[in-house]
Predict the 3D structure of the following.
Amino acid sequence: MKEINSIQAADKTSLTDAAVVDRILTGENALYELLMRRHNQKLYRVIRSYLKEEQEVEDTMQDTYLKAFEKLHQFRQDALFSTWLIRIGINNALAKLRERNRLSPVSLLADQHEDYAFLLTQSNLIGLVNHRNPEKIAIQNEIRLLLEKAIDSIPEKYRTVYTLCEVEGMPVDEVTQCLNLSESNVRVRLHRAKAMLKEVLFNLSLNQEVFEFGDKRCDALVEWVLKALPSDS
């Protein structure tokens, strides 16, 4: 595997996703690392909105990257690579759910129970946000965990839209392509998700560290996938 730092320094800021894909298709497989590092966070968050077990999420990410590499020649240059990749990731996550008999193909489209119970009152959450002391980092971590648990609590079809739109910051038109939904449907689900989370949790969830996938976890996944790819031609 080529040295990670040299690849990032040379290419990360200068190559578009489409340009990276073109070079990989000519045999520079090591450049696949650039695509993984650019999209690991986004892919993790969307798959995490379907699957809860961390190991299962990472396994699905690995499968997604390998499948995307195998089908890289099918990527249309007029599309966003992130959208194309997320579609593959969602299909893999749904397939895993069906394999485990958690959900049938029919029930994936059915309405789910929408009751939501908050763990803390609004005043407690505000207190956590506004409290200033030497343990600020620990408090922020606690808030992040509360947010993740809150988002996990809402039904999947709302959770996925909310994660893509509000946590990941994807535009609505890109979300419609990822999920094969109409723009109006996406907006309705997003509105419903916000209502279930309530105003306080919605404001808190603007923190982009929710469902964070970085540092050692990111490095480990990138290294695993690169080793599984064929050698550069």
